[in-house]
Write a structure and sequence with these properties.
532 residues, 2 domains, six-stranded parallel sheet, 31% helix, alpha/beta, 29 strands, 27% strand
Length: 532
């Protein structure tokens, strides 16, 4: 077995702790033929008592209620190995706001192992093939620690879930590194030595880093300035220097395309633009509609929830490992019974021996099919929430403001979905620079667009119907519910990225603070109708 692992010691802990968990018969999920069979299967496999169904209309669980204080937990438990996962802190508050969850063997066996197995096995991983995995850079408190005679593992849930896969599925070979190293000479050299790569589990931006020649060249140039410590890495460095960076970039891109040609990519496709899809299609010689992609929905609070178990990545199957509920404007119904095709996802499941009812994911999903295994759309949208971190706000905006971000905004008759696609489209067509703001002025919505000195508002209004999600804004304009105002500079912007990076690296902010939001909804704090 060949493996390239930036922390092999921690993988040994996973293998010893979880490696003997038996594999599940997840393929039988696809044979569920109706709603009743699905509900019976979900109750059985989730481990929830049947009376839990009677509580879904009245109870709701904040994930923080079953988050643990790691230090206190360590001292009060006798197990010699303790594994914890944590959230990414997307809301961007203090590092202390991260939620930590204990990954007991019972929880892993019931929820995480069968769900992650389904995702990777469906994608083609087997004991004869290789897996390529990239995970987030670790936080200041992450890693393997020896405390009070115990081994303590603390990691992002993304790394926990994928190290779990490696421990239970035993691939023939694997590579696992952090996102930030995906274009370094050493890691690229390791990747190119692997045979029979069947899966690549990494964010689409990581794959774009190989597919886009400019991004790949930038990574190589940066890596050439750093020391190389492996034989494979030194050999690749010499090749790059002999060819020159420009020629080496094109050659390496071709070699990466060949070594990844039979692989299925595993990532969340929600935020991808059509331009990004085209770059990856061209890189891997895919025809439109024939993409080898497993789109997935895995959350720290709810585990592996859904993935496309068939070819179409825009149709994700909900795993029968939890009891999902759709909440729409206060009404809650089982996903298998709801009449609402769209709503906020609540999930009931067992957590370390105790039922937790209607865990609030904060995400909005779209229900496509309810016969047998439920099917949801490929977009998972983050419902709007109040931003906790500081941003730069124009004095013109006033004081005592609530600032909301997300990828789904329910603003009465105006529902904005995945605004990144809209803002990206406007950026390409008319040069919009920076985040768009929607705010209330004189009891009417105003969309503030940082467009520099070039376009006029009529030009943007003309282009709106041509952009993803722009029809919603166009309809609001027609109803006179909204007006567009152009400004030269963004009225709300992030702190300098270098400042945020320093705070993240110093452990002052969680990694989620680096999330760039394309749209801010800004409301006076005393406005009666807030968007959450």
């Amino acid at each position: 077995m060949t493996y390239y692992d930036f922390d092999p010691e921690i993988q040994q802990v996973f293998s010893s702790q979880f490696g003997d968990i038996p594999l599940s018969d997840w393929e039988s999920w696809l044979s569920l033929s109706d709603r009743e069979e699905y509900e019976d299967s979900a109750i059985k496999q989730s481990g929830l008592p049947e009376e839990s169904l009677s509580q879904i209309e009245t109870e709701k669980t904040d994930p923080r209620s079953f988050s643990v204080n790691v230090d206190t937990f360590i001292t009060s438990h006798e197990d010699s190995v303790l594994v914890f996962c944590h959230t990414s802190g997307t809301s961007g508050g203090s590092i202390k706001d991260l939620k930590w969850f204990y990954m007991s063997r019972e929880l892993v066996s019931l929820l995480w192992a069968p769900g992650m197995q389904a995702i990777f096995q469906k994608s083609g991983l087997s004991p004869q093939s290789a897996a390529v995995v990239f995970v987030p850079s670790r936080g200041s408190d992450d890693g393997l620690f020896h405390t009070s005679g115990k081994k303590v593992v603390k990691l992002y849930s993304a790394e926990v879930s994928q190290r779990l896969v490696l421990s239970i599925m035993h691939p023939g070979s694997y590579l696992i590194h952090e996102y930030k190293d995906s274009r370094t000479i050493e890691v690229l050299a390791e990747l190119l030595t692997l045979d029979r790569i069947s899966v690549v589990s990494a964010p689409f931006l990581t794959v774009l880093g190989w597919a886009d020649p400019e991004r790949l060249r930038w990574g190589l140039e940066k890596s050439l300035r750093e020391p190389v410590t492996t034989v494979e890495g030194e050999q690749l460095r010499q090749r790059i220097e002999a060819l020159g960076v420009e020629a080496a970039t094109l050659k390496l891109r071709e070699e990466l395309s060949q070594v990844l040609s039979d692989a299925t990519l595993i990532f969340s496709a929600t935020a991808m633009t059509e331009k990004e899809w085209e770059v990856i299609r061209q890189f891997l010689s895919w025809e439109r509609g024939e993409e080898k992609v497993t789109n997935l929905y895995v959350g720290s609070e709810v585990g592996p929830f859904a993935a496309n178990l068939e070819r179409d990545w825009k149709r994700m199957h909900v795993f029968p490992l939890t009891i999902p509920v759709i909440e729409y404007r206060g009404v809650r119904e089982l996903i298998s019974q709801t009449d609402h095709t769209e709503g906020r996802l609540l999930v009931s499941r067992m957590h370390n021996g105790k039922p937790v009812i209607n865990v609030d994911t904060g995400d909005v999903i779209h229900v496509q099919d309810q016969d047998g295994l439920p099917v949801i759309g490929g977009e998972i949208l983050r419902d709007s929430f109040e931003l906790k971190r500081d941003v730069i706000v124009s004095p013109e905006m006033g004081e005592d403001l609530n600032i909301f971000v997300g990828s789904y905004f329910d603003l009465g008759e105006m529902k904005i979905r995945n605004p990144r696609l809209l803002v990206e489209c406007l950026s390409q067509r008319v040069g919009v620079k920076g985040a768009v703001v929607i705010r209330v002025v004189d009891n009417r919505w105003e969309m503030v667009v940082p467009a520099g000195k070039k376009p006029c508002s009529q030009e943007i209004e003309r282009l709106l119907p041509l952009c993803p999600g722009g029809d919603v804004i166009d309809e609001a304009l027609s109803r006179r519910d909204l007006r567009i105002r152009l400004v030269e500079e963004p009225m709300v912007s992030e702190m300098p990225r270098s400042t945020l990076l320093t705070k993240v690296r110093n452990g002052e902010l969680p990694k989620g603070a680096l999330t760039k939001w394309p749209l801010y909804v800004v409301m006076p704090s005393d406005f009666p109708h807030q968007p959450i």
